[in-house]
Design brief:
By secondary structure, this protein is of the alpha+beta class. The protein has one domain (about 5-70). The chain contains 2 helices and 3 strands; from the N terminus they run βααββ. The protein has helices at about 10-20, 20-45; strands at about 5-10, 50-55, 65-70. Strands 1-2-3 form a 3-stranded mixed beta sheet. It starts with a strand and ends with a strand.
Amino acid sequence: MTIRYRIEVDDSLHREIEQASEADRTSMGHVLQKSVELFLRARRAARCGDYVGIVHADQRAALKIEFSEL
């Protein structure tokens, strides 16, 4: 079973990341890593495929990834 995925960061969030402190960037990285791990666990339970994940901040300023099939 093969699951391929690509992570993209939307432009507004990319600017925030560039301006963030090292500690904030580390925190963002942990959030993104956990999101990808959860996604992969769910996909393994379903089926293989190619996906793209769009990273953005939601209304609560929390990071989230929306995965969609390519």
